[in-house]
Here is the input.
Amino acid sequence: MPTIDLETTVDSDFDPQTWDMVGSLQLSTQLNSGDVLADLADTRSDICVLTADLGRPTKVYSFRQRHPDRYFNFGIAERNMISAAAGLAAVGMKPYVSGYACFLALIATENIRTDIGYTNLPVRMLGTNSGIAMGFYGTSHHATEDIGMLRSIANLTILAPVDALSLQQAIEKTIDHPGPVYIRLGRGRGDAVYSGPIPDWRIGGSMQRRDGTDATIFATGICVETATQAAELLASEGIQVRVLDMYSLKPLDQEAVVRAAQETKRLFTAEEHNVIGGLGAAVSEVLAEIGAAARLTRIGLPDVYSILGPPTHLYHHYGLDAEGIANTIRQNLA
Here is the structure.
């Protein structure tokens, strides 16, 4: 398997906790779903949590400590877990299924489609460590196709909260949503993005992080933070970039896309995902359908299998860090 040079890819003084699994788990800023669900379950007897032997690393184990009778560990059996969640939902429960995105979304796609999507059951899936967050574990543990695969499943809503506060909001706002929901979570190792609830949060919405007329970046996942940092770098050079947190990937905020196409000169998408099938594809579809005369550049993995390395190095390698995104915008505005 190809690797990257740890000494020369980024500065040598990177935090070793960004690539050490034990250390990085201590830095979690967004994987608080267990506590959120446990609080809700105090007054909601229909909430239960399912996991595939990953309760501790996905941060849902705290639910077991408070509601052990509604916590189910299926072992390494994601397909079985999804089908069981469908059965629980069919008898009136609200199951929350937690696992690594690479296993939950990719291995169990058939079960998600047939048992949950086709039946339109209220199962909520929490796919953690999406994208290349588990860089040190290699391609088998990366989830760079999950948006594309799941976006084509009818009835399925896809959300991508970026930190603890937005995750809590997504869970609370969708608890009574009638259909299935896939909540795509990243590493949970970055800084908090929001200091308060997102105003007017809604399925199919987005949040503008900063305004600008020279370009717009539609971002999701960790790229919300790095795109904002890139916009700040470019602002010092006189380039004003609008940044949108596309926290709802399906349905997409089409009005925000149309407005950006009309009001800014160039459009970009930034995502920790293959450039095919993800956010870039979703934005492209909107632009094509409305006949917008706007040029779009997709920033993500260039239709390759991601290589092995610490996540911080991989973000730099694929141009998903602040400087990488800023460089792409500079080149395309020149």
